[in-house]
Structure formats: structure tokens, C-alpha cells
Amino acid sequence: MQPYNFEPACWATDKDGLDNISECPLGLLSFDGQNAPRLNILRGHLVSESVPMENGGNAFALDFSRKSVFGYSNDNKYYILRDVHGTNAIPFSQTFIQQKLQGESIIVANQRIDYNPSISELTVDLSGFSEWINTHFFRESNNLTEDGAQELKFSYCSKEPQNILLYKNNNDFEVHAKHFAKRLGGYNTLHEFSFKETWRLNFRMLDSEGMPLNDVLNNLFEPFERLLAFCMVSWEYRKNNVYRH
Fold it and tell me: How far is 157 from 46, CA to CA, in rounded Å?
């Protein structure tokens, strides 16, 4: 996946804590494309949790983990950083001026939602999936004209390609290979632009109430991803060994 720096956001330990953003610390959320998403609270702290002691008192543990923390960004987006862990803040420590947290996943939404919202559709990029489908609607040719100049031509069907139905479970959900095409740039004096065509794995919930995100990930996506991984590896092996003895 591509690295990404999210807009600065105010953060709280629960979604209702965003009601008064003036009381929420400012933090920068980022993803480097490989490691866990990081949240850097620029000043102060977001999480400060004490744990009960055997003698009945409370103490501050070195580390903490919690299901999620919530953010509201400068561009009016709501963030949920899920399955969070980090170093616990000790509020009376004068040396603690920043806090760094990590999470396993990020949800970005246009409205305030819970840690495990109900969804009606899930679309996922899978490495090698587009090559496995092996269906392209974008055509490109590079030719020489009669005067020796280089001529580049491309074409793309204006009618949106139909998604490929991979699986349907009665009236519960459908799994598709969903086609995406994206063009960047415009018709300037140099006619510079880029075009990308790809296929993504798409789950569509047929129940009008949707399904909790965790249920979709754990019960639908992960088993189907393992099946596809097996199919794609088997296909690659057969492709490379079909004429070998």
C-alpha cells in the first residue's frame, strides 16, 4: 500500500469526547505503507490509564492497549484508529510532553461512527489480483509513422465494464471482482496524464441492515482471501510449469 499522511486531527478516547474539540489534544496520523499506522500526539497526551493494585490503590502501568481512539480532522473527517497500543502517560510527569501510539487499522468516515460499524460493502486491494483476473479494457499501442515519428495511441471503452460475480451466498452476501479505472491529469499544452486500470475484491451485503465490520473481515474476507491466495499461487505454478516435464 502507498504511504499516507492524514490531515491533523483532534483526538479523544471515545467518540463522544469529540463533542468539545477544544479540550482534545492535536495529533498527526500517518501510515508508511508497511508498518502499523502511527498516531503522534504533538503536545500533552491522549491516554493516561491507571490499574488497580492488590492493596486497593492505583498505579500507572508502563504500557497500555485499548480497542480504539477517535479523531476529527481539519477537513471534517472522522478517524478511528483501531486496536491501539502505546506507552501510558503519567499525568504528573513533567518529562512527558508527547505520546506516540500505534494501531492495527484505520477507518475514515464522513460521520461519527463506532469502533465496529455495520457496513453494506467492502472493497479491498489484493496484490496480484488484477493479474489473476487477466482482463483488460485499456489498450495501448506504440507505432512509428511514415515520417519516422513515434505515435502513441490508447483506447478505453466508455461503457463501464461489468463486475465479475465470484460467489453468492443465498440472500446474505455476494463477492465480486470489481473493475476500477482512474485517470489523472488533464489536457494541457503537453497533454500529460496518467491512466490506471485494476480489479479489486468486493463484498456486498444483501441485508439492508448490513453486517458488523469485524464479522465481514473475520468471517468473510479472511477465508476468501486465503482461498484466492491458494488459487493464484496454483495458477502461477501451472502457468510457469505447463510445458515442463
Answer: 50
Question: What are the cell numbers at 236?
Answer: 502461477
Write the pLDDT tens digit of every residue in 15-63: 999 998 888 999 999 999 888 999 999 877 888 876 666 776 666 777 8
Exposed / middle / buried, residue 185 (Cβ in 10 Å: 0-12, 13-18, 19+): exposed
Give the distance from CA 130 to its chain's centroid: 18
pTM: 0.74
Burial 37-60 (b: 16+ CB within 10 A, else e): bbbebeebbbbbeeeeeeeeeeee
Amino acid at 7: E
* Interatomic CA distance for residues 90 and 123, integer angstroms: 40
Q: Alpha carbon of 105 to those of 38, 80, 85: distances in Å?
A: 10, 8, 12
Task: Give the tens place of pLDDT for each residue, 110-142.
Answer: 999 999 999 999 999 888 888 888 877 767 677
Residue 157 pairs in a beta bridge with none
